[in-house]
Amino acid sequence: MGFGDDEYPMKRIPSVVEAPSQNLESCTEYSYSRDEVELARYGKKQQLRRNFGLLSIIGLTCTLMITWEGLLTVFQSGLNNGGPSGLIYGFIFTWIGSILQALVMAEMASMIPLAGGQYNWVAILSPPSCSKFLSYLTGWMTVISWQAALASSAFLGGTMIQGLLVLNYEGYNFKKWHGTLLLYAIIALSLFVNTYFARLLPKIESMVLFVHVVGFFCILIPLVYLAPHGSPKDVFATFNNGGGWGTEGLSFFIGLSTSMFAFIGCDAASHMAEEIEKASTVIPRSMIASVAINGNAEAAINSPTGFPFIEVFLNATGTVGGATSMTSVIIAAMVFATIGFLATSSRMAWAFAREKGLPGSAILAKVEPRTALPLYSIGLSTIISLLLALINIASATAFNALTSLVIASFYSSFAISAAVLLHKRLTTPPEQMFYGPFKLGRAGIPIIILSLAYSAIGIFFSFWPASSTVTAKTMNWSVLVFN
After folding, report:
1. Are 90 and 241 a contacting pair, CB within 8 Å?
2. More reliable by pLDDT, 62 or 124
3. Closest Cα to residue 6, out of 110, 107, 101?
4. What is the pLDDT of residue 78?
């Protein structure tokens, strides 16, 4: 398991799609880059600018995953189902599962460095008899997961700003439409950065990686030194079954969605593949590195701010100013994540439209020649988020179903692509497999099987409601949206 030489071994990768042979031969000239050769192998041509390197794409992926920041924003569900100990053990379980997923995706991204990610992997690796159906299904799942993630990120950022308003102004009257307008502001900023400052996006993401790491210690140190400390039993042996489920074990698995949501996004690099230099080598490294880098309850759960972590910060520092400063770090991370989500979701939509998978593909697949940006796909992702935000005005419960929808869609698209890779490995002699610079070797099959088992757990429990007493308000409507 590991990387080969940076010089791409062309003879090891036979063409597996219908691409004109003369295109492949012409691309072996020295005037073409290695990335262009890899695109030509799958019948594609270079349309987007390759501005991202290893550091900047790790920054983008870490920014999207925002694991510790994201865990803080949604850990209310984990406290309710699982408790403090459930959050700790659930985080470890999810981290291991996410590493397994990242390893499998790294191998596929190294083999097939195309912006469609899971869609392209399934289309090329599947048996011809079911390739079109499975790839089309996977493409839609991936598009849905990234569009839902974009809207969720902007929503969390907007409502966290509302939480600070509640904390700092006693007379503030919390309204759901305020959160929608704040979401619109964050989306507008993201659109501005992804268009007018698109060339600077790699540099911005490199700086955000620094903020992501430093911000962790800016939050951790005050909590360690200022917050009241519980006993080891409170931390490692205190479970909570706030949903009223039959067993604490069942409650624990339902609460896993908290940690799973925090690790979503490690496939982002694959959807930026056609904007990354030496994509077949850089993408696997960024996927693995991003997962490796990210690694009083009742009062917190009932916090008037709507976010338990704000109450935790307030209790730890004892001052509104201290809690506001610490929360501002989380909000900044969420805003930067939204910028990255818009970039990634639009590239996925563009790649799928390029294969005529979306309505209006002829327009959505266009790339503006002056900027080399898929402006129509960026606009589509923006409009979808603006429309989804209207749901929040009518029902925050319905909008919150997007969190579960992100997990179900992402894990399902991964499961299909991992399953076809497993089938390919089991039915193809090793010498005929077309690996890229990164491959799992003999460990590949066990890793794929374990990653599929983990993904099945995530998909199954992502549809469960937080409480065993289900009403229209507490129902997890993601199962309806997903179907």
Report:
1. no
2. 124
3. 110
4. 74
Roughly how many angstroms between the first and final C-alpha of the chain, as a whole number?
A: 37
Which span out of 194-198, 236-240, 303-307 was modeled with the highest average pLDDT? 194-198
Angle between helix 308-317 and 67-80 (nearest 10): 100
As a whole number of angstroms, the distance between CA 48 and CA 142 comes to 20
Query: Which string of DSSP letters, residue by residue, matches 143-188?
Result: HHHHHHHHHHHHHHHHHHHHHHHHHH-TT----HHHHHHHHHHHHH
* Distance, CA of 37 to CA of 23 (rounded, Å): 9
For 268, counting Cβ atoms within 10 Å of its Cβ (0-12 exposed, 13-18 middle, 19+ buried), the class is buried
Output the pLDDT for position 30. Answer: 36
Judged by DSSP in three states, 373 sits in strand
In sequence order, what DSSP letters do the residues of 268-325 get, joined into one string? HHHHTGGGBTTHHHHHHHHHHHHHHH---HHHHHT-TTS-HHHHHHHHHHSSHHHHHH
For the chain, how many helices (H) and strands (E)? 22, 2
- DSSP character for 430? G
d(CA 47, CA 368): 9
Taken in order 2, 458, 112, 288, the sign of the CA dihedral is negative
Sign (positive/negative) of CA torsion 115, 120, 122, 125? negative
